[in-house]
Automatic annotation (TrEMBL):
PANTHER family hit by this protein: CBS DOMAIN-CONTAINING PROTEIN, CBS DOMAIN-CONTAINING PROTEIN CBSX3, MITOCHONDRIAL
Organism: Neobacillus driksii
CBS domain location: 81-137, 146-213
Lineage: Bacteria, Bacillati, Bacillota, Bacilli, Bacillales
Keyword Ribosomal protein (UniProt): no
Name recorded for this polypeptide: Helix-turn-helix transcriptional regulator
Keyword annotations: CBS domain
Gene3D superfamilies recorded: CBS-domain (3.10.580.10), Winged helix-like DNA-binding domain superfamily/Winged helix DNA-binding domain (1.10.10.10)
Top-level taxon in the UniProt lineage: Bacteria
A Pfam family: CBS
Length: 213
């Protein structure tokens, strides 16, 4: 992505607010001559930020802006946005898992085995479903109700937020454990973080705010 100069940013702002607008009118707003503006207008038109129509003037190209924002999403890495995973031992009781969910204010817990490797995912609805049908939640271990390996959808720190978002949407899930594979082939994963739909929304807002000219 080309870094724009201060004056080019100013031109974009004017065209966004007042377009279609002629080169002469932009020059007047900036107290410059039309000739002095010509190189900047040429750059912005060539880069796709602006569209020019003869005898009408310059338009702000919204599609270009959206495409640039999407490109930035592709560049952002899971590693830079992941949150701490909230973890329970898979032998933890369902009762204690529910307490943990409230204490940590999260929607999903991850279960680990005695070696600390990822063993399962426990969502809000997994816990609700279990609570409806079972009286003795203190005796029931999470390992009985969790979604287990090898059915867990994971993401690695070097994947992009776009890839993480796609995985959540295609699999109809709210969060992904961020993992490092310890032993390729036998589903041994070290849990290093979590990505949720909130993470994606927050990143989206951040990108939008950074880009607002
Ligand atoms: P909820 O059940 O509260 O709506 P989810 O939509 O995230 O939350 O979970 C739906 C189901 O998918 C649950 O049974 C849960 O255990 C499972 N699940 C959640 N996240 C994952 C994941 N990353 N990989 C595999 N299964 C998951």
């Amino acid at each position: 992505m080309i870094k724009l100069t201060k004056r080019q940013d100013e031109i974009l702002k004017i065209v966004k607010e007042s377009g279609p607008i002629t080169g002469q009118q932009i020059a007047e707003k900036l107290s410059l001559t039309r000739a002095a503006l010509r190189p900047d207008l040429a750059i912005l038109t060539m880069a796709g930020n602006l569209d020019a129509r003869p005898r009408v003037g310059y338009f702000f190209n919204h599609n270009h802006e959206v495409k640039q924002q999407a490109e930035q999403f592709i560049l952002r890495k899971v590693a830079d946005y992941k949150a701490f995973p909230i973890v329970v031992e898979k032998s933890t009781s369902v009762y204690d898992a529910i307490v943990q969910l409230f204490l940590e204010d999260v929607g999903t817990l991850y279960a680990v085995d005695s070696d600390g490797y990822l063993a399962g995912v426990i969502s809000r609805k997994d816990l609700l479903r279990t609570a409806i049908g079972n009286k003795d939640l203190q005796e029931l271990p999470c390992s009985v109700i969790m979604t287990r390996m090898p059915n867990i959808i994971t993401v690695t720190p070097d994947e992009t937020l776009l890839e993480a978002a796609k995985k959540m949407i295609t699999n109809h899930i709210d969060s992904l454990p961020v993992v490092k594979e310890i032993n390729p082939g036998n589903h041994t994963y070290l849990l290093v973080g979590r990505i949720t739909k909130t993470t994606i929304t927050r990143a989206y807002l951040e990108i939008m705010e950074q880009n607002s000219v």
